User: Fold this.
Amino acid sequence: MRKGIAKTFEEVGKKPIDFQSFNHIVFGFIAYLITFFIISFLFNWDLIIIWGWSCFISLTAGVMWEVIENLGFPNAFFRIWGLDSLENSLMDIVFDFIGVIIGFALSWFEWQAILVAGFILMVILMFTMYVLMKLTQPNNNNGAK
Assistant:
């Protein structure tokens, strides 16, 4: 499985799993919670319908992001490593799905538990992403130690 993990900055977006993969878990989680709360406040539907639509909209947003991301448009603004490989895009969608499932599982509880668990999850994942990003960045010390 290590062959599929980006270990250097140049491998980001080329290998199936990179430090951005954790960001997709957070995206899926947040997208699910936002759609869950919006749908539940706007419509008086059964909870099973709210869950279904929240999952569908969140996953659709993740897939649409991968398509938009690989059209090259966002690269001009914040990406410097180029377009993603097909394997990386598919794994990003899998990680979006994992985030949606975490949000779905937490939506069974009271909304306070969702917010606390979500905050803890985001802090852990953001810290992990930061550490992995630092590990995969090229060394810009110009030979100085």
Remarks:
- The first helix runs from residue 20 to 42.
